[in-house]
Design goal:
α1 runs antiparallel to α2, α1 packs antiparallel against α4 (80-88) and α2 runs antiparallel to α3. This protein has 90 residues and is mostly helical. It has helices spanning 2-28, 34-61, 65-73, 80-88. The radius of gyration is 14 Å and the shape is elongated. The protein has one domain.
Amino acid sequence: MLKFFKVVALLEGTSLLLLLLFAMPMKYIFQIPIFVQMIGMAHGVLFIAYIIMAVMLKIECNWTFKKFGIISVASVVPFGTFYVDKKYLN
């Protein structure tokens, strides 16, 4: 399950960056909102999957509350999931 979580973390982090660095500028600079709708939906689903899997892994791997908190908060910080993958998911 940890391997699948790492994949979800990579996809979630990538979708956040796409949303912030591509879709939002397209919406607010060029008035093309469709990218926010598409990428935003994918990001939302991946975010929910990330958090649910983090809760499941906290129980399964007996993570401390601090480790779980850092892993959870990383999902809303740009590049956070990439940091978590290298530092905590080995």
